[in-house]
Amino acid sequence: MATGPVSPSSAAEHDDHSLPVGTRLGEFEITHRIGEGGFSVVYLAWDHSLDRKVALKEYMPASIAVRGGKTQVGPRSERLRDTFDAGLKSFINEAKLLAQFEHRSLVKVYRFWEANGTAYMVMPFYQGSTVRDTVRQMPGPPDEAWIGGLLRPLAEALQVIHEAQCYHRDIAPDNVLLLAETGQPLLLDFGAARRVVGGMTQALTVILKPGYAPIEQYDEIPGMKQGPWTDVYALAAVVHWLITSKTPPPSVGRVLNDTYVPLTTAAAGRYSERFLAATDRALTVLPDRRTPSIQAFLADLGLLAPASAMPTTQLLAEDDEITIIRPPAVAREPAATATRQPTSTPATVQTGSTAAGSLKTRLVIGGAAIAAALAAGGWWLARPPAPTSAKPLPAKQEVPAEEKPLVAAPAPVAGPPPSVAPTPAPEPLPPPRTAVAPAPAPVAPKPRAVARPSPSPVAEHAAECANVLQRLSLGESSPELLERVKTLGCR
């Protein structure tokens, strides 16, 4: 109720749509009218309970409502009752949503309530100027760094509300306030109530801002859902206005005749190619071809920090090859597994997100272990005998001393399969030692005995398997290499 007669200065501010200065609504007293929009009036008020200035927003859709008396609000006619009530409900829902969020670029709601046939919302009193007014005072368009500093906090705020399935739907330069003290951008005037009212009346020019509203916000276009991409379009339209001082052509007209000039052409040379191309993509008319989310828009603009832009799977790629060796069944993976994945690439192994990549990684690590075992077995088969193993040869009395170097390579080694490798055949022949002792000739062949481990077929096979498997362990995965594994039968 009013606390006293309205002063002349106050009367100058008062009209049929706004409350007179001095009006009391509970503990709040109207001291000044800040502004009026299509469906609400915002006042500066004094909070008598906490002794502070606040902003008080009243639901007052001037096109369909009228004030009766000083405080009462109602529809202009009963025919508009349903539309009025729908907008009132959305106004309250908007207040409830804002009350749930905590972000420095979102308006804080102290309180909201219904009275006098309408509803009210009390918020902090923010001092500053809108982006539209700020940019118009600049000597020229802001640079890319300034625009990036504006977009980051706004994008963070939009991500917060998008996670709650809430969408602003009314982003524009005059709905972003730059706080006077810090320059922090603040997102104003959520469009939830505006969308519902617009859907039930023909006054769409009041509800939507041409150039900023994407095609899916026009109710005449069926089958196009609103979502994060709706706010992406509006935010990109703000960037377009900051760069060119013009709004993009209305999205409805672009469906029939798209006269949009890409920023990569209109602003080439003044901003980075990546920045301009990202904005052009976000302004695509059809939603299914547009940038799908705020985070994707930031990534396209190059405004995401490197840590947040990098997929988490890449951070795990290094550890994947280390931790995957832990399962004991890795060594049992047959080499044939590799042949079933001839088109696998190192990128598949790095992600660790598919079964094929996991098998490939286990094969590489298991192959390294198998290669080590085969190399050891090959060395055992082809190793030179012990220092005394050169002497047992004279045990065959029919072999002359001068021919000993020719039979230095132990013939039994080439025949047995790898499974016989552990049996040291030459060691149980001590008797020939006495026969060789008087002969000085065996001393000369010792240097040639070093050449005795000439690779036998088994040793060559083991060495080649070790080489192939080692190349696999280092990440090489060409089809030829995998086919070679299959041909050799490395296990």
**Cα separation of the termini:** 92 Å
Mean pLDDT: 73
Q: Please indicate the percent range of residues in DSSP E strands (runs of 2 or more).
A: 5-15%
Content-based structural category = alpha+beta
Could you say what the CATH architecture of the largest domain is? Answer: Orthogonal Bundle
Q: What count of helical segments does DSSP give? A: 20
- Predict the CATH topology of the largest domain: Transferase(Phosphotransferase), domain 1
So, the CATH homologous superfamily of the largest domain? Transferase(Phosphotransferase) domain 1
**Count of all domains:** 3
Q: Which residues sit in consecutive blocks of at least 5 with pLDDT less than 50? A: 1-13, 201-206, 307-366, 386-453
Globally, the shape reads elongated
Number of strands: 11
Largest sheet: 6 strands, antiparallel
Give the spatial strand order of the biggest sheet.
1-2-3-4-8-7
Radius of gyration: 41 Å
Helix content: 40-55%
Classified by CATH, the class of the largest domain is Mainly Alpha
